[in-house]
Every structure is written in structure tokens, then in C-alpha cells.
Write a structure and sequence with these properties.
Blueprint lengths: L7 H11 L3 H9 L2 H9 L6 E5 L7 H6 L3 E6 L2 H8 L7 E4 L12 E7 L8 H11 E12 L4 H9 L19 H8 L3 E13 L5 H11 L1 H12 L3 H15 L10 E12 L1
Parallel strand pairs: 1-2, 1-4, 2-3, 4-5
Antiparallel strand pairs: 5-7, 6-7
GO biological process, one term: methylation
Keywords: Methyltransferase, Transferase
GO molecular function: methyltransferase activity
Length: 271
């Protein structure tokens, strides 16, 4: 694997995602998302596929199972190592910044990202890179949390406790809005599919177990709560997260918790 310089914003971002246990979180309830994106793209055997911000290979692995030649890139090497440990498939695992991909122009038939590239802080830079490395006539496929869905609401809940964002950074869930995607890609991608779907989550007995998992395993929540602790506001943060879980729980009283996390699934052709 290549390496990312261990300083500045990118190093902090990589360290955030390495904190907690994101691989375990994926296995808890996020696993279905990668195959859904791969199915929507209809990846073919022999296709050259790049999975950007691939994490533990949630989309990379099912793409490779279809016979594609897959490169999985991510800013956080610990996540790639966890992904490589999940499979014996011949996937190339490359540590790389989504805003400055180390690949030649038009290197791939398919460039995709499942709840990954949306977390690169500078959206236009990341979108430009996705287009650059996709061949003309190739496919761009994205699955991103919706800004008005549960994950978008979670980030709004946590925002008052977070440190100031870096200059030029945009909110990750914006990628889940059709208008934002069209603005980022302009006429460089002809979108064939933009559809809103939901991931149903039924693995938690109690609603607040959802928040407890995020506090224990999810890098952004861990980082923001740490800032709340520094400011002496951890009790306030915990109470806000509990209230969020109660609000979004769709189960009837006495039933196990049930949540729906909305996302936008988009596929298009590079012009």
C-alpha cells in the first residue's frame, strides 16, 4: 500500500476513521450497502473498477466477486487492512486521498463509492477526481446518505459540539442531494439513475443502543464527543444523542428498535 503524509488535515481525517471500530460497525448493519451499489451499476467481469474511500471493501469485495479487476482506495490504511483480511480475492488495496487520487486519467471503467467519498471535506475536488480517473463512456456510481435522512440529522445533532470545520469543508450528507451532485459534476456525467432508498436497521434492542454504538465505534462521533468532553459538555452531548435515537426510532412501544436510514443511489455515464 502507498502512504499518506502524516501531517495536517488528511492525517487527522485518517486518524479519526481509524479510531473506534468502524469495521465492526460495518458488520453490525452497513454490509448491505456495498452490494446494492454494485448491483445498481451492474458491474461486469473484467471491468476495471476503482472504489474510492472504500473503507473495508464493502463495495470492492462484491465487485471482485463479479470478476471485476478492483482497486480499493482509502485515506485510512487501517480500514484497508481490515478489508484485505476479509477476503482472498485479488483486490489491490491502495492508501489514497480522494481529493488527489494517484491514478492516471481515464484509468477505470467504473469509479464508485458507497458512503465513502462523501466524507472528503472538499467536495468539488473529490468530484473532479472521480471524473478524471473514469474513462469517457465509463460509469460513476455513488451511494450517499441523504441530508434530510437519519444520518444527516445525526450530523446536525452533533454539530453544536464539534470543533470548527476546516476551511472550505462542506457537510458530508450534501452528497445525498440530487441538486448538489448535479452542481458538482455538471455536464461531465449524464446521470441515468438517481433514486432514494432506505437501509432498515433492526439490530438494536433499545433505541439508545444505536447511539451507544456510534459513540464506541464511529470515528466522527468519537471525535466530536471528545471535543464535547474538552469543553465540559459531554453530558449535554449524551443527552442530545439519546433524544435523537428516541426521535428516530420507528418501533412501537415494547418492540425492538427500528430505524430507517435514507440514502441516494446514483449512477451515470462520464461524457
Amino acid at each position: 500500500m502507498t502512504t499518506i503524509p502524516s501531517s495536517g488535515l488528511k492525517a487527522k481525517h485518517a486518524a479519526m476513521w481509524a479510531s473506534g471500530d468502524y469495521p465492526g460497525m460495518v458488520e453490525t448493519f452497513l454490509t448491505p450497502l456495498g452490494p446494492r451499489l454494485v448491483d445498481a451499476i451492474a458491474i461486469q467481469p473484467g471491468a476495471r473498477v476503482l472504489d474510492v474511500a472504500a473503507g473495508t471493501g464493502n463495495a470492492s469485495i462484491p465487485a471482485a466477486e463479479r470478476g471485476a479487476h478492483v482497486t480499493a482506495s482509502d485515506l485510512t490504511p487501517e480500514l484497508l487492512a481490515a478489508g484485505a483480511a476479509r477476503t482472498d480475492l485479488p483486490i489491490e488495496w491502495v492508501t489514497a486521498d480522494a481529493e488527489a487520487l494517484p491514478f492516471e486519467d481515464e484509468s477505470f471503467d467504473v469509479v464508485m463509492s458507497a458512503i465513502g467519498v462523501m466524507f472528503a471535506p472538499h467536495h468539488q475536488d473529490a468530484a473532479d477526481e472521480l471524473v478524471r480517473v473514469t474513462r469517457v463512456g465509463g460509469t460513476v456510481g455513488l451511494l450517499s446518505w441523504a441530508p434530510d435522512g437519519m444520518l444527516g440529522a445525526l450530523f446536525r445533532t452533533m454539530a453544536p459540539y464539534a470543533p470548527p470545520p476546516p476551511p472550505g469543508a462542506s457537510a458530508p450528507p450534501l452528497w445525498g442531494g440530487e441538486g448538489h451532485l448535479r452542481k458538482l459534476f455538471g455536464d461531465r456525467v449524464e446521470w441515468k439513475t438517481m433514486r432514494r432508498e432506505v437501509l432498515e436497521i433492526t439490530c438494536f434492542e433499545q433505541a439508545r443502543d444505536y447511539g451507544a454504538l456510534f459513540k464506541a465505534r464511529y470515528g466522527p462521533t468519537i471525535s466530536i464527543r471528545a471535543n464535547a468532553v474538552r469543553e465540559g459538555r459531554e453530558a449535554e452531548f449524551d443527552a442530545a444523542l439519546d433524544a435523537f435515537c428516541d426521535e428516530w426510532n420507528l418501533a412501537e412501544p415494547g418492540e425492538p428498535a427500528r430505524f430507517e436510514m435514507a440514502y441516494l443511489l446514483s449512477t451515470g455515464t462520464r461524457g
